[in-house]
Amino acid sequence: MKLLITRPMTAAVEARARAEFDVDIRADTRVMSRQEMTAALRDYDLVMPTLGDTFDASVFAEVANPRCKLLANFGVGINHIDVAAAHAHGVQVSNTPGAVTDATADIALTLILMSARRAGAGERLVRSGDWSGWHPTQMLGQHVTGKKLGVVGMGRIGAAIARRCHFGFGMQVSYIARSDKDLDFAAVRMPDLTQMAAAVDFLVVAVPGGAETRHLVDTAVLAAMQPTAHLVNIARGEVVDQAALIAALQAGGIAGAGLDVYEFEPEVPQALRDLDNVTLLPHLGTATEEVRSAMGHMALDNLAAGLAGDTPPNLA
Ligand code: NAP
Predict the structure, then answer these.
(1) How many domains does the chain have?
(2) 283 is annotated as an active-site residue
(3) What local confidence, expressed as pLDDT, does residue 127 receive?
(4) Both 145 and 263 in a single domain?
(5) What is the pLDDT of residue 95?
(6) 76 shares its domain with 217
(7) Which residue, 91, 99, 158, 244, shows the most beta carbons closer than 10 Å to its own?
(8) 78: containing domain
(9) pLDDT tier for residue 132 given thresholds of 50, 70 and 90
(10) Comparing C-alpha atoms, which of 200, 195, 208 is closest to residue 254?
């Protein structure tokens, strides 16, 4: 059985992969080309793809009878893989839930605090050499403690964000999801996103990407938000209508935004980069050595099950 890993991994993950599998590890850190994806389906039994490797229906359609039987995605989000098309071609898909939860929630808190307290703009001011010193009305931001949080998608990551905000910052939590959640802290499920957007100080996006959630945060949702409110997106860029967000930020319709993900990633429009009231991170959600190794081991566990003819533990 031959395995293809589509990006360089941490040393621990590469060592295990080489010990347990007949593996090729692609050296390129960029997303796979269409030709590389069809070749992967044709020439390998097992593939570990990741974010941006767009295994859509047309890629599967090019490979009538794929040798590949399992796409063990490195990451929880699988909106770049057409799971129905994979299944139709006899390819199973797995992911790495749980391993990413705390690190991604930590990045959401980083963005809430940076956006509210203008940390990015403050850092730029100090670096510029133009800081003239502390004074009582310098760079006033928003207080975070005790404020209202709205979570869009109360899943693993949404709940980890809400828990941090509730216990750490005494925030009042509301959320939208497709079903009621049994949580160990107070949280109100709202009937509708626009209603929640109007009521909160921080709106945090934590739903999966894909057709169902594309532009869930649109002009109407942004218009409902208070001019003092902040939007944070750690989910997928396409969940937020980026053009509408830029317009809302330019017009002062909302106070700020903290983004880890972008609609046409890695392209970040100049209009967004020109704004001082937006904090821009390069998709750092899970970017720690421990978490990237844990994700890799989870993906390898799924592949090991596939190799042994067992059901991978994290099938999508
Ligand atoms: P999860 O546990 O599956 O949670 C997703 C939540 O979204 C669930 O509460 C689900 O509601 C809700 N939801 C799904 N579709 C919805 C819709 N149409 N309207 C309202 N709510 C909806 O997933 P997770 O592990 O928390 O991960 C969430 C996403 O975060 C991933 O899919 C990934 O794209 C992103 N992510 C980003 C990073 C990063 O580096 N920035 C890292 C990891 C993950 P129900 O439970 O009621 O169905």
Answers:
(1) 2
(2) yes
(3) 98
(4) yes
(5) 97
(6) no
(7) 158
(8) 2-99+288-307
(9) very high
(10) 200
Ligand 1 mean position, distance from CA 53 (Å): 19
Burial of 288 (0-12, 13-18, 19+ CB in 10 A): middle
Active-site residue, selected from the candidate residues 117, 164, 236, 292:
236
Residues 148 and 89 in one domain: no
Ligand 1 pocket check for 209: Cβ under 6 Å: yes
DSSP strand pairing (148-152 vs 172-176):
parallel
The verdict on residue 229 lying in a domain is yes
Q: How far apart are CA 34 and CA 278, in angstroms?
A: 34
Identify whether 164 is part of a domain. Answer: yes
In terms of domains, do 155 and 204 share one? yes
Confidence of residue 93 (pLDDT cuts 50, 70, 90): very high
> 213 and 253: one domain?
yes
Q: Could you tell me the pTM of the whole model?
A: 0.97
Q: Check residue 115 and give its pLDDT.
A: 98
Q: Assess if residue 59 is contained within a domain.
A: yes
**pLDDT tens sequence across 238-274:** 999 999 999 999 999 999 999 999 999 999 999 999 9
Summarised one tens digit per residue, pLDDT across range 184-226 is: 999 999 999 999 999 999 999 999 999 999 999 999 999 999 9
155 within ligand 1 shell (Cβ under 6 A): yes
Percent of the chain with pLDDT over 90: 100
Q: Distance of CA 247 to CAs 16, 147, 222, 223, 252, Å?
A: 48, 25, 10, 10, 9
Residue in 74, 107, 178 to alter for ligand 1 test, most ligand atoms within 8 A of Cβ: 178
Residue 107 CA to ligand 1 centre (angstroms):
15
Identify whether 269 is part of a domain: yes
